[in-house]
User: Fold this.
Amino acid sequence: MEKETFLKILDKYNNGKASDEEMQFLCAYYQLFELKEDVFKRVDSEAKKRLGDAIKLDIDKKLEEKENPSHPILTRSNRKINYKLVIAALLAVVIGIGAFWLIGRQEHDIAEQKKVNQEPASMLITPGKDDAILVLADGTSIVLNDVQKGMVSEQKGVQIEKTADGELQYRAVEGSAPVENTIATPKGGQYRLVLADGTKVWLNAASSLRFPTSFSAHERAVHLNGEAYFEVMKGDKPFKVISDNQVVEVLGTHFNINTYKEETTCKTTLVEGSVRITKLAEGTQELSHTSKVLRPGQQAILSSLGDKIIVEAVDTEEFIAWKEGYFKFEKANIQTIMRQVARWYNVEVEYRGAVSNDLFVGEINRSEDIEEMLRVLRLGKINAFIEGRKVIISN
Assistant:
């Protein structure tokens, strides 16, 4: 759909003249990724919020139209959908800035959805926040949320400070002796830090980074478990990120590494610069015959079960969205989505009955509470509800 066509339908909607088909198009294309650049520059922020609230209300009304099968919210589909021709795919607008649309689901009982929407336990489950523990070389643990801005610690000539916006910064005096520190985030936590060489690191939930307080004359190396985004400061010494089964080597670049064990593969996504990915044998032995160099916009996928590194072209935005404060999915199955939900909201996930093979595409702000996330899933007829701190996905 061309932007001008979209805006014409938008005007008809605002004037109450949009047909049912145009309404479906509007819902399906509101905040669609290809239109994100500037399509709403001609709509002021207050008008955009009103529009988002209105569309969201229309969507909720459609959930209640149980007896009107002539305008289904979603239809089952094969995976070869042309998104520009989708009419029945319905976008859920989340506070005017987030969106989620889904491919295929069978009908579930509306009464069950109402019951789920009234579930009070979800009020106890909040989205993640800045939260981490710093472990110093002597074993001292510092809960960073409990520390005010300013000096956190000083170790052998290296000062550790917490900035006003919560970032942790290492400042090393030349010639200082390096010692190892570890920063770890829990489920429902994330943190940012600046290493002694100026490299910036964003650490996602349930992750840890082990690093020296200053770097040696020959190498800059850190050890990662979980997921982190790196903006490596350029320098003469190579920068290495070591995880269980691979090492990523760079001089200066921006990239994301996802090494969560439950994901079964390690994914390195390059945004800027270049990196070399090398498979590690047990321990830290590099398998030089298993090595790939990435260009911007590429991703290296490495399974823990094999030596082969697969390189693919990807939309990097999908893999760094968490750093920018939102979830983004491109044809993701429900298990992939719920693994991210579990880490960010610090919940367990249980599947009851057969697990859906349907795919999801879209985005939603990570600041939303979990009930909003589940409400969006229910729009696609995913039966999701909460028991205590457990999310149940039933079929």
The longest strand covers residues 286-294. The helical segments are 3-14, 20-29, 45-64, 110-117, 316-324, 334-345, 370-379. Residues 128-215 form one domain. Confidence is low (pLDDT under 50) at residues 30-42, 62-117.
